[in-house]
Amino acid sequence: MPTLINGKEVSEKIQQEIAAEVEQLIKAGKRKPHLAAVLVGNDPASQTYVNSKIKTCEKVGFTSSLVRFDENVTETELLKKIEEMNEDAGLDGYIVQLPLPKHISEQKVIEAVKPSKDVDGFHPINVGRLVLNLPTYISATPYGIVHLLEYYKIETQGKHCVVIGRSNIVGTPMSILMAKNTPLANCTVTLCHSKTKNLKEHTLQADIVIAAIGRPNFVTGDMVKQGAVVIDVGINRVTSTETKSGFKLVGDVKFDEVAPKCSFITPVPGGVGPMTIASLLKNTLLAAKKEIYK
Ligand code: GUN
Questions:
Q1: Active site annotation includes 15
Q2: Whole-number Å distance between alpha carbons of 110 and 121
Q3: Is the CB of 25 under 6 A from ligand 1?
Q4: pLDDT tens across 141-191, in order?
Q5: Strand 228-232 vs strand 236-239: parallel, antiparallel, or unpaired?
Q6: Which one of 5, 77, 168, 221 is most buried, counting C-beta atoms within 10 A?
Q7: Does residue 33 belong to any structural domain of this protein?
Q8: Half-sphere exposure of 223 (CA within 13 A, CB side)
Q9: Is 290 exposed, middle or buried (0-12, 13-18, 19+ CB in 10 A)?
Q10: Is residue 21 part of a domain?
Q11: Is there an atom of ligand 1 within 6 Å of 235 CB?
Q12: What's the domain range around 182?
């Protein structure tokens, strides 16, 4: 049976390291790092994520603020707030929780965030810096996955990594990170997506499969070679008769079929999910220490 990758444990460890660094900053006479989250509307999943981000800030000794807007807020009003936050010297970094209501352009909002405060790493300048191998904020999910591979000492050098899904937030930055000339990467990368022909031919070649396609149970046992490392980014809500709520969370990987073939696999929940907050806090610490932008 495979080693189950415990994202909760790794996330806790990173949070402890961050908390220790915050103590050092305070001892050195600096203020606490300050992260703000902007939440528009009442989407239950977004509210849960944002609450969890805020709660974890408190845990590691950061200051946090929640800026809430009604879902009818205009794009102009939101952009005005972003402008204010860009100029607020007491704020190290902030995120605008996505998705936004349809009448607001997400791209406009992403580009309005000052790159030095863009701890989500979504601004084109920060994505460009990632591509060019310059210091940057790496978006939370890909950064979290790299931490998991590092923690479990998973060999990546020269390995074949197949990423499934090419979203701006996960698949695309993930493929770039895994191909980098660094000790934690150096993979040969194949980026597969909805138009890929014969997907299984690609995935069967993979030493490392990273599934970020957003379709429940998409990766099946016959698609994975013996001994592969499988990282499941999916968080899909499906109806279930097994739970009181009538829903359960499943990944992009059909776990029961795939796990017996793997050397390592992430469960859902408890694999990649808990790592994203740890990554966001790491980026905020980098922002507070002005390590990316002087
Ligand atoms: N929505 C889903 N994931 C994310 C994320 O990492 N950051 C933001 N801002 N919104 C999201």
A1: no
A2: 9
A3: no
A4: 999 999 999 999 999 999 999 999 999 999 999 999 999 999 999 999 999
A5: unpaired
A6: 5
A7: yes
A8: 22
A9: exposed
A10: no
A11: no
A12: 140-272
